[in-house]
Amino acid sequence: xxxxxxxxxxxxxxxxxxxxxxxxxxxxxxxxxxxxxxxxxxxxxxxxxxxxxxxxxxxxxxxxxxxxxxxxxxxxxxxxxxxxxxxxxxxxxxxxxxxxxxxxxxxxxxxxxxxxxxxxxxxxxxxxxxxxxxxxxxxxxxxxxxxxxxxxxxxxxxxxxxxxxxxxxxxxxxxxxxxxxxxxxxxxxxxxxxxxxxxxxxxxxxxxxxxxxxxxxxxxxxxxxxxxxxxxxxxxxxxxxxxxxxxxxxxxxxxxxxxxxxxxxxxxxxxxxxxxxxxxxxxxxxxxxxxxxxxxxxxxxxxxxxxxxxxxxxxxxxxxxxxxxxxxxxxxxxxxxxxxxxxxxxxxxxxxxxxxxxxxxxxxxxxxxxxxxxxxxxxxxxxxxxxxxxxxxxxxxxxxxxxxxxxxxxxxxx
Length: 414
Hints:
Shape: globular
CATH architecture of the largest domain: 2-Layer Sandwich
Number of helices: 10
CATH class of the largest domain: Alpha Beta
Helix content: 25-40%
Distance between the termini: 77 Å
CATH superfamily of the largest domain: Antithrombin, subunit I, domain 2
């Protein structure tokens, strides 16, 4: 049931800009002209979102849901700890080719603030935080960048304390209204930094569905296979932006003032693979431009879904971010100003939740980038201290004969 819907729900964050379908509701959206670098940021994050969507769809799961904005933000923060070839890999992955690092950071700050303040009737929270291992010292420039441009909370953390995992998990739960719980299972002993993004969205439909009209109805996975869903239905025809070509239909289902919407792309022949193949950045721009207002009664499933990716490492490597996932002296050279061993990203965890009902949509997601240090043998001679009871014996090497045996249990009694 949720395969088609999950395809397009990744677009929910892309609908933040006015693509030609303004609305005249009681609350006027706080629109302003986007700066050139902000528009470049929209293009970059949109291209990244669609690239990632196609990468994740290769897993052939029937349903999927994630927040490309959250992942893009977390990796953008992480990008700032690098330089040279490693930085270039981040730039290529995040599609920042048209922006300098400074412009990307500035655009991330201003675009995020714009989205959060755009619509008073939509609740949107985007927050960042960074925890680093106690005893380590962060480069002042990195700390200033993430605090200034990503509004990140930056604090040290006793990562050897088993309870420290609760600090990260509780922060994520608070930022997502409790929808994302216990995201991090444990903190490994060689962890040195966690870069975390959390996002929460709650918006009411501009045209609400009447709960009394919701009833069981078939959802056709294929012409010969159907499942039963709770199908919502509007009481009367409403105005939507709509575009159709060949076997594809593009619909914008607006929230509140219409500045946020749920984009839906579906087919007419039950061929989801065909829909996915058509979903490109250029096509999306074309559908938005060509869409026109149309009046119709909309029916759509009521549903809830969640998806956790325990580690996005292989997907991100496949998309070109390689070196940061393997210990290398060039990794994260701009993070710490005290001596440390080689670093790498060990995990990129992503967890997302979505609920669509008659009133509107509630969605939350969080992304955690875990950076660890290579555990090397200490330089100089190893010191082993026999400071507890032990067994000992005297043996002959060639024969293996044991000549004497004993134990040391309490030296005080000798």
